[in-house]
Amino acid sequence: MFNTDTITRFSQSETPFYYYDLNVLRQTLSACREASSKYGFHVHYAMKANFNPRVLDTIQSFGFGADCVSGNEVKAAIEHGFDNNKVVFAGVGKSDKEINAALDADIFCFNVESVQELEVIDDLAAAKGKVANVAIRINPNVDAHTHHYITTGLDENKFGINTWQLNDVATALRTLKNIQFVGIHFHVGSQITDLEVYKSLCLRINEMQDWFEEHGFKVKVLNTGGGLGVDYYNPDTNTIGDFESYFKVFKDFLNVKPGQEVHFELGRVLVAQSAALISSVLYVKNGQKKNFLVLDAGMTELMRPMLYQAYHAIENLSRRDNAQAPGTKYDVVGPICESTDCFRKDVELPVSQRGDLIAIRTAGAYGEVMASGYNLRDRILSVYSEH
Ligand SMILES: *Cc1c(COP(=O)(O)O)cnc(C)c1O
């Protein structure tokens, strides 16, 4: 489905670049919208996964909301036409400047992570004569069974309010006049492929909404967060996420009351398969123990392998015709002056040469957005499947 043929059109272009297949993106968004709307669920796109302008415009055109984690993301969401009533602002460390900007933009809601933050938002809203909607991010202590660097919902993580602090939250919500409680928010982690995790989350959300209702608060919004994973091993055969099964878990296990809205904040699963990082082989180093392919892309263009030990499928686009011929194993590395600058070790590939075009697949999420200027590298380019 991901159209690698079109990439070769760009083989004369300067590498490295991110190649976006907008058709894959649209098909993914369409599948998500169909599966969620069946149950009346609302999806906010977690913009931190990819804020490339073309990607944002495409996602906005499908009617999704935006889940932002910085003041600049809130600003970008509004600029790209996301409805301010569908913009939420999450994050454990919102600065006063960011909160003020979000208040000025009249966003739907702040997902709040501490009692102190409630007090600050209340103060800043009061100064503007406004009342800010808030949802309380609760740490559900549910294990996401994912890489520990991307687990967020355990008591030991920095995120959210732990259940033993809820009485203080309730007191703050009752006394502070410039905030309005609208609901509860959760996010247990990323790249979650075991749907049982979401079942546990649902049961926890049910308990938590009962707690709030028993304490006299009307819970209008249940925000379940994001985290649905993608198949990094089989990008061609498993391109579109299994949205049907995902939303069905919530339909089956979440206790949704009349008038309540259920919100989701999906990032990775909406964008990951729609892009590849395209790079050229600069040098082939044949050693005694190891062979290296030295690419012109490195951790400055795609950091996930180095940051999370993440797996990405790697293909030699220039040798696809003899992909079945006996190949060899390479450590595929970047040019950056760090030993950790390695995409993967012992990658089975056709015998490769200087100038070959290499695709690192499933790079649409947490790829381009994490690019850095380390080593004073050029800014990463983006190329699209269509104009
Ligand atoms: C990162 C994040 C998401 C999206 O996570 P994905 O794994 O990309 O779906 C959703 N909600 C919050 C609060 C986040 O921080």
UniProtKB/TrEMBL annotation:
Catalytic activity: meso-2,6-diaminopimelate + H(+) = L-lysine + CO2
Any single Pfam family the record assigns to this protein: Orn_Arg_deC_N
Cofactor dependence: pyridoxal 5'-phosphate
Sequence positions bearing N6-(pyridoxal phosphate)lysine: 48
Gene Ontology biological process terms from the UniProt entry: lysine biosynthetic process via diaminopimelate
Binding positions for substrate per the UniProt entry: 268, 304, 308, 338, 366
GO function term, MF aspect, one: pyridoxal phosphate binding
Domain Orn/DAP/Arg decarboxylase 2 N-terminal: 30-272
Domain Orn/DAP/Arg decarboxylase 2 C-terminal: from-to ranges: 18-364
Active site positions, chain numbering: 337
Record's signal peptide: none
Regions annotated as coiled coil: none
Pathway: Amino-acid biosynthesis; L-lysine biosynthesis via DAP pathway; L-lysine from DL-2,6-diaminopimelate: step 1/1
Documented EC number(s): 4.1.1.20
Chain positions recorded as pyridoxal 5'-phosphate binding sites: 227, 265-268, 366
Keywords assigned: Amino-acid biosynthesis, Decarboxylase, Lyase, Lysine biosynthesis, Pyridoxal phosphate
Subunit-level organization: Homodimer.
Function per UniProt: Specifically catalyzes the decarboxylation of meso-diaminopimelate (meso-DAP) to L-lysine.
Homology family: Belongs to the Orn/Lys/Arg decarboxylase class-II family. LysA subfamily.
Name of the featured protein: Diaminopimelate decarboxylase
Source lineage: Bacteria, Pseudomonadati, Bacteroidota, Sphingobacteriia, Sphingobacteriales
Gene: lysA
